[in-house]
Amino acid sequence: MTDSQKQPPLIAHIIYALSIGGLENGLVNIINRMPPERYRHVIICLSGYDDFAKRIERNDVHLFSLNKRPGKDLGLYRRCFNLLCKLKPDIVHTRNLTAIEMQLPAFFAGVPARVHSEHGWGADDPVGDNRKNQLIRKIVKPFVKHYIPLSAELEGYLRDKIGVASKRLTRICNGVDTQKFSPATQDRSHYPETFKPQDTKVIGAVGRMDAVKDPLTLIQAFALLLQRKPKLKEHLRLIWIGDGPQLKASKEALIIYELDSLAWFPGSRTDVACIMQGFNLYVLSSLSEGISNTLMEAMATGLPVVATNVGGNAELVSDGSTGMLVEKANAEALANAMSAYIESPALCEKHGAAGRKKAEEKFSLDSMVSQYMGVYDRVHRAAGK
After folding, report:
1. 368 and 350, same structural domain?
2. Which terminus has fewer CB within 10 Å in the chain: N or C?
3. CA 106, chain centre distance (Å)
């Protein structure tokens, strides 16, 4: 085969599972936007994948599942090693702590270029202080050629806590599709009937129903807001789009607060961009974040945002200009911020427009993809390819 007939280099992306989530959405955006003549892609899921995989627009991307068993599955390393030996990728890219250990089978399978991304922490380790998790990262560190932290906080953590040299770090902020996520039209055709009237104000959230996203504090804040201003019950609604282990508990909390008729928690949806256009306010109640895709999508949609002051949220939200930052796990602070927007349509419009402008200027998908290709090019060249 001549040089002109050679296939583009192959990247094996290793993640825990391909289902709705910010990490997964970012990966799909990268694959869809990257020119096919530059790189080929496969996705290896430790656990599995669902219909979210249909968001991949390229027909040359293959998905594999290693069917991880509950608990410590030592056979996972062997299955990953065997698959990598078969695929012979030029680059392996693992993401987050759940997949970082697959750097070891990638090394022993002879994959020449190995990249790892840190997107954020889980509810069990919201600021990265868990010593066991730090030890895992330090053990794996010699096997990783280059790191991609998504926020300044994560970059500092890898440099100062894990001891990764600055030359091995490239911070890349996520990007957002500003055409797909565009200013709100108040189209609520996808909503339940009681949510459709134009005088209805909708507080919305999108994300995996996980403890780290803290949906229960948002529900508590919503209840507190209505307790203070009972008249809002006539035209204030709450929506959360996303599935996960906290969905059942969240629905039970709504019943306890007698708010189930004022809230819609439908689980996962494929029409998130359309649903988000019917929101008046976006809220992110997370205990921990890297760089939130949904926060950028809300800003691109022209929505004012209320977000907890954790992780990379302060890098995205200009407090007092595009939204408000509040203390995490503080229902009262969350309720106060939501109330300020609900009572001032002018403030909503002003901050929403500023957020849209910031998304257009700083969160370009093309820029994000270009930066990822830059890292892939460098590690590929360094491996002698």
Report:
1. no
2. N
3. 25
Judge if 153 and 199 occupy the same domain: no
For β-strands 10-18 and 281-284, DSSP reports them as unpaired
The two tokens of residue 139 are 């053990």
Residue 81 CA: distances (Å) to CA of 51, 65, 75, 115, 140? 26, 13, 10, 16, 16
Do 260 and 167 lie in one domain? The reply is no
Q: What is the pLDDT of residues 327-372, one digit of tens each?
A: 999 999 999 999 999 999 999 999 999 999 999 999 989 999 999 9
| Per-position DSSP letters for 195-229, written without gaps between them | G-STT-EEEEEES---GGG-HHHHHHHHHHHHHH-
Average pLDDT of the residues of the chain:
94
Which range marks the domain in which residue 144 is found?
Answer: 7-175+364-382
In this structure, are 300 and 376 located in the same domain? no
Distance CA 295, CA 220 (A): 21
Residues 6 or more apart from 36 whose CB is under 8 A from it?
8, 58, 60
Alpha carbons 109 and 89: distance in angstroms, whole number: 10
Quick one: 138 and 220 in the same domain? no
User: What is the count of structural domains for the chain?
Assistant: 2
pLDDT at position 385 is 61
- List the 91-95 sheet strands across, edge first: 62-65, 40-49, 10-18, 91-95, 113-118, 146-149
Q: Is residue 184 part of a domain?
A: no
The H or E element spanning position 352 is helix 345-362
pLDDT one-digit tens code per residue, 124-177: 887 889 999 999 999 999 999 999 999 999 999 999 999 999 999 999 998 999
Q: Within a domain: residue 266?
A: yes
**pLDDT greater than 60 at residue 188:** yes
Q: Is residue 182 part of a domain?
A: no
Q: What CA dihedral angle connects 131, 137, 138 and 144, to 10 degrees? A: -170
Helices 215-228 and 331-342: crossing angle in degrees, nearest 10, is 60
Q: Are residues 343 and 374 in the same domain?
A: no
CATH number of the domain residue 269 falls in: 3.40.50.2000
- CB distance 245 to 227 below 8 Å: no
Diameter over CA atoms, the chain: 74
Is there a single domain that holds both residue 335 and residue 371?
A: no
What is the helix (H) or strand (E) element at residue 11, kind and residue range? strand 10-18
